[in-house]
């Protein structure tokens, strides 16, 4: 990591801010107020695990012209000072009386005219990372300036990745791929799933992850039940299907893909399910093009699963990926987001083997003008078997 | 982890819900709406790393009487079904048109009378983990029911830990203590700090952490600059002070403490600073009592630092700890929260060695009737030296 800050040259962030300002202009926004780790990192390069503490709010204001202004707790001044922006305003946080509200209000008042509009992401997949009572106080303080929905500006900018970003995601995918190659070393019969999860995280770190924000998975006879539970303590046994799924992070960028392993001998129904998922993914890889909608991609994969005689297990079959584990759009029948060149997406079809057993397969791609380019090295066509 | 869910017997959660309902009654709340990983885990035992995905909101409604109701994406039904509550309502999320708002509104309408008040945490350290536009829609849908600030109810309940919770935090502290004992094995001169961070996370996992939500630190000549930056690539060298700070997690409970190491020979000013921090912590350990305020604890430590001839480096000198890395209160001059028996706190004095170099020392305690009990095994009085 380049000196633990910035990650990219300043020009990358300047390009992003210009993109944001282009979108803001279309939506008649005089400023954009960002409060989340991902949005702040996107605009400034400010990357820290300190967000794990809910104690303090952090703000970045993107004006309609010029560079962003950081309004942050003074504990972050040193790190933000090594990022590309120069206007950094701090307060002694946490302050139970006024936790940055006055400083933020003064900043917005100095930037936005009386009749102006300030965008805050309010739509799907967004969160406001500041206390709600402080947000109400802020609205009162900056009136008659109006706060309005700024989701589209941040979505349309962030969703198309630069080549520099794509390189970062590809590098994180390579780390996960190398860690997956080590799984047969430690995922033996008799080892508790919880220990497999620990060893997998160790492998990700040893292969170069800065940290491991997400590991999930499952292991059970002939498939698994759900894919979001913490690991159970039951040892792996012959006939289990083991799935490991990771969102590891390097330089602030995530991968998000899984791999399945047969522990000893698994049934033909499992192999058939894996084959169907593999073909459905291949079909998406060969037919997806920019201009299609997220729901089109959903249809491509479910239609192929049906052709293969498999039952899709519902839910979304993929999503955006980048500086959070999951980003918009959602590959569902209802999401009509246009898939654009430069978007990084997961393809994540799942099938139901029995009413309580599913199998999920995942790859990461970037959408190019002529179709998807894999960022995760393609899974083997046959599910690997881990034998004693 | 007991079957990857629940963590504690149902009675523990029932006790918590009764505590919440007692606070709700005092604040005239007919229901409490919880949206964050910590609050949902606290009330239900629902623990998953899936919160890492910002795609879907999750809701738990605590009524004034009876058990909580979960209103959650269907992907979580299986795991929530293994928790202690039985009323679980799901929708097919993410839904771009209605992402749980109608289901949540119907639930609140069925529980809360027309004239009723619904508490939502809005105060310091709180966040609303749902899109703001959906929150506005919800308010419209449930009118004339009012949403009001429910921070006090959740704070007064969560801040006093049960013995079962204290045991969990002590266990996580023991894991970190064992990992710190391994630091001299890998933090040698010539090893880049980024590699030290990776190895430390590996050690935490190998000692039994389920995952590592937070590692920070620093290493530089005669102290470090800030404590929130990602690791730099510079190799450790003679005269560096290395600090590692971790919020590892086991069974959903955090530790949060640091340790300092002298890489080779460090100056007397560093040893003096360490001694002052050690004495200031001892003074807090011997004099803190229930009924004191957070600001009193701040004064105890800063006064002792002054007596030791050290310069306190400002900011907060400790905070609550439990199911998030940091919880209220904040050990600052402004925080007048009463420190109560059963609170788990960090003691985190820091001193300025030179204008650009600080040293921070941290322990975790539970406040008993007769004073603090250490949960982190006490740091050595002398900073350990790592020699070639």
TrEMBL record, chains A, B:
Family annotation (InterPro entries): Creatin/AminoP/Spt16_N (IPR029149), Creatinase/aminopeptidase-like (IPR036005), Creatinase_N (IPR000587), Pept_M24 (IPR000994), Pept_M24_MAP (IPR001714), Peptidase_M24B (IPR050659)
PANTHER family: AMINOPEPTIDASE (PTHR46112), XAA-PRO AMINOPEPTIDASE P-RELATED (PTHR46112:SF2)
SUPFAM superfamilies assigned: Creatinase/aminopeptidase, Creatinase/prolidase N-terminal domain
Descriptive protein name: Peptidase M24
Signal peptide: none
Peptidase M24 domain location: 168-367
Residue ranges of domain Creatinase N-terminal in the record: 16-160
Gene3D superfamilies tied to this protein: Creatinase/methionine aminopeptidase superfamily, Creatinase/prolidase N-terminal domain
Organism: Sulfitobacter pacificus
A family per Pfam: Creatinase_N
């Amino acid at each position: 990591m380049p000196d633990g800050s910035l990650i990219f040259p300043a020009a990358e962030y300047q390009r992003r801010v210009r993109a944001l300002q282009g979108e803001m202009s279309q939506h008649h926004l005089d400023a954009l107020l960002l409060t989340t780790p991902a949005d702040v990192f996107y605009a400034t390069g400010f990357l820290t695990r300190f967000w794990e503490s809910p104690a303090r709010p952090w703000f970045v204001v993107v004006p309609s012209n010029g560079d962003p202004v950081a309004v942050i707790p003074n504990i972050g001044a040193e790190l933000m000072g090594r990022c590309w922006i120069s206007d950094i305003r701090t307060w002694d946080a946490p302050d139970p009386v006024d936790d940055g509200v006055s400083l933020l209000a003064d900043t917005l008042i100095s930037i936005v005219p009386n009749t102006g509009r300030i965008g805050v992401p309010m739509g799907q997949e967004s969160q406001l990372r500041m206390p709600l009572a402080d947000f109400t106080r802020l609205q009162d303080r900056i009136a008659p300036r109006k706060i309005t929905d700024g989701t589209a500006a941040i979505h349309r900018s962030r969703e198309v990745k630069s080549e520099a970003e794509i390189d970062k995601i590809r590098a994180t995918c390579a780390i996960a791929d190398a860690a997956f190659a080590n799984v047969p070393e430690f995922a033996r019969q008799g080892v508790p799933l919880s220990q497999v999860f620990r060893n997998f995280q160790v492998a990700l770190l040893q292969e170069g992850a800065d940290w491991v924000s997400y590991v999930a998975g499952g292991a059970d006879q002939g498939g698994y039940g759900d894919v979001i539970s913490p690991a159970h303590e039951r040892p792996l046994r012959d006939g289990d299907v083991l799935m490991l799924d990771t969102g590891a992070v390097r330089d602030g960028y995530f991968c998000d893909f899984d791999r399945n392993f047969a522990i000893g001998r698994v049934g033909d129904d499992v192999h058939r399910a894996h084959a169907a998922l593999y073909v459905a993914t291949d079909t998406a890889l060969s037919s997806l093009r920019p201009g299609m909608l997220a729901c089109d991609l959903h249809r491509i994969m479910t239609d192929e699963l049906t052709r293969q005689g498999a039952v899709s297990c519902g839910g979304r079959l993929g999503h955006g990926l980048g500086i959070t584990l999951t980003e918009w759009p959602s590959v569902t029948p209802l999401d009509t987001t246009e898939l654009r060149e430069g978007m990084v997406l997961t393809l994540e079809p799942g099938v139901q083997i029995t009413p309580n057993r599913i199998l999920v397969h995942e790859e990461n791609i970037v959408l190019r003008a002529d179709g998807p380019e894999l960022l995760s090295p393609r899974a083997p066509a046959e599910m690997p078997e881990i034998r004693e």
